[in-house]
Design goal:
By secondary structure, the protein is α/β, with parallel strands linked by helices. The chain folds into two domains: about 250 residues, Alpha-Beta Barrel (TIM Barrel), CATH 3.20.20; about 90 residues, Sulfite Reductase Hemoprotein, domain 1 (2-Layer Sandwich), CATH 3.30.413.10. The chain is about 40% helix and about 20% strand. It contains twelve helices and 15 strands. An eight-stranded parallel β-barrel has the order 3-4-5-6-7-8-9-10, surrounded by five helices. Strands 11-12-13-14-15 form a five-stranded mixed β-sheet. It is elongated and about 75 Å long. The relative contact order is 0.11. The protein binds iron/sulfur cluster. Iron/sulfur cluster (SF4) binds next to helix 11. Keywords: 4Fe-4S, Iron, Iron-sulfur, Isoprene biosynthesis, Metal-binding, Oxidoreductase.
Length: about 375
């Protein structure tokens, strides 16, 4: 059972799409820029200390854009202390109250997530758009299947993909009428197929960057799997420029899962990737333990190597021939191999050390 390559899927298998670039702080989204990973704080934004502590953790985990809920004037005021203390770009999440959007911009926020349809009338939207233009802050138009306009929902008989795409189109067209093009769009449903269809419909008509995610994906493994399926169905078609994995719980996990999804699709690399065989009746070593040990040892390595951990010396090297390097162990012996060719035979208890030495050498070469 050979491993499949994690190289980026060739463009010919994706839908044709040319995407504009939008800049939020120093993060570029769209164009030829890599798909970025973002998250949202779960602390009360008004609690500056706790929010800064969570932002620090997210930043360290590799989060590239952080969204904060701004439900009150107190939260909007806190943004000034928060934004001046961090380097990672910040986006304020505003519902219903355009004044909070204006205050967030005054406080130095890098971008806004609003739904132009629910923050007031046309004049309020115009005011927010003008303030964004003055500050060079983009807007993310966030369409959610759970909060569509009644009229659109009725027209389509529910929160369908077409209804979501129409809602997004309507809001974007209004921004365009105001001469504002510095926006990106998200269309999120908790249903994977609706989510995919809505984004595909919209992506074929508009050239703005798309923020993708499955809303209310849930928690734990089921939320992670649902998100991975939803993101893969879009990214493998070339749709999606920035992504949030919405999981209940510690947002740092969202970054870990997001990175794993992007690395699995060959979209980005975050250091060496450890792959391992599924094990079978021929397995002669404790694969899970060894793979975990190697993964930990490689945490601070920067290369894009694919490292295989295989459970038997008979089939291991061949099955992992698409890995750059790997080990296969059993019966007291460890084999170190590169691209399927055995380069070293060592006692089993020394194989991890021998593998790590080879990897270090490859990083230096
Ligand atoms: S133990 Fe050997 S044959 Fe079995 S899955 Fe692993 S590498 Fe393949």
């Amino acid at each position: 059972m050979p491993f499949s390559s994690s190289e980026k899927l060739p463009e010919k298998f994706k839908i044709e799409r040319r995407v504009r670039t939008v800049e939020i702080g120093d993060l570029k989204i769209g164009g030829d820029h890599p798909v970025s990973i973002q998250s949202m704080t779960t602390t009360s934004t008004a609690d500056v200390e706790k929010t800064l502590a969570q932002i620090k953790k997210l930043d360290e985990a590799g989060c590239e854009l952080i969204r904060l809920a701004v439900p009150s004037s107190e939260a909007a005021r806190a943004l000034s202390s928060i934004s001046s203390a961090v380097d990672v770009p910040l986006m304020a999440d505003i519902h219903f109250n355009h004044r909070l959007a204006l205050k967030s911009l005054e406080a130095g926020i890098d971008g806004l997530r609003i739904n132009p349809g629910n923050i007031g009338g046309r004049s309020e939207v115009r005011e927010v758009v003008r303030a964004c233009q003055n500050r060079g802050a983009p807007i993310r138009v966030g369409v959610n299947s759970g909060s569509l306009e009644d009229e659109i929902r009725e027209k389509h008989g529910g929160p369908t993909a077409e209804a979501m795409a129409e809602s997004a189109a309507r809001q974007v067209d209004f921004l365009q009428e105001l001469g504002f093009e510095d926006y990106l769009v998200s269309l999120k449903s908790t249903d994977v197929n609706t989510n995919t269809a809505a984004n595909l419909i919209f992506a074929q008509k508009y050239d703005c960057p798309l923020h993708i995610g499955i809303t209310e994906a849930g928690f734990g493994r089921s939320g992670e799997i649902k998100s991975a399926v939803g993101m893969a169905s879009l990214l493998s078609r070339g749709v999606g420029d920035t992504m949030r994995i919405s999981l209940t719980g510690d947002p740092v996990r969202e970054i870990e899962v997001g990175r794993k999804i992007l690395a699995s699709l060959g979209e980005r690399s975050f250091g060496p990737e450890v792959i391992s065989c599924p094990t079978c009746g021929r397995t002669e070593i404790d694969i899970e333990k060894i793979a975990a040990e190697i993964k930990k040892a490689l945490q601070n390595f920067s290369s894009e190597l694919k490292v295989a951990v295989m459970g038997c010396s008979v089939n291991g090297p061949g099955e992992a021939s698409q890995a750059d390097i790997g080990l296969a162990g059993g019966r007291g012996t460890g084999l170190i191999f590169k691209e399927g060719e055995v380069i070293k035979k060592v006692p089993e208890e020394e194989m991890i050390k021998a593998l790590l030495q080879e990897i270090k050498q490859m990083e230096c070469d």
